[in-house]
Amino acid sequence: MEVMFHSSSFLIPTDKTSATRYAVVVLNQNLPRFTPLLWEHAKLRLCADGGANRIYDELPLFFPNEDALLIRNRYKPDVIKGDMDSIRPDVLDFYVSLGTKVIDESHDQDTTDLDKCISYIRHSTLNQESSKLQILATGALGGRFDHEAGNLNVLYRHPDTRITLLSDDCLIQLLPKTHRHEIHIQPSLLGPHCGLIPVGAPSAKTTTTGLQWDLTDTEMRFGGLVSTSNLVKRDKITVESDSDLLWTISIKKQDPTRP
Amino acid sequence: MEVMSHSSSFLLPADEASAKRYALIVLNQNLPRFTPLLWEHAKLRLCADGGANRIYDELPLFFPREDALLIRNRYKPDVIKGDMDSIRPDVLHFYLSLGTKVIDESHDQDTTDLDKCILFIRDSPLNQESSKLQILATGALGGRFDHEAGNLNVLYRYPDTKITLLSDDCLIQLLPKIHRHEIHIQPSLLGPHCGLIPIGAPSAKTTTTGLQWDLTDTEMRFGGLVSTSNLVKGEKITVESDSDLLWTISIKKQDPNKTLRSG
Question: Where does the Thiamin pyrophosphokinase thiamin-binding domain lie (chain A) (predicted)?
Answer without folding.
Answer: 179-245
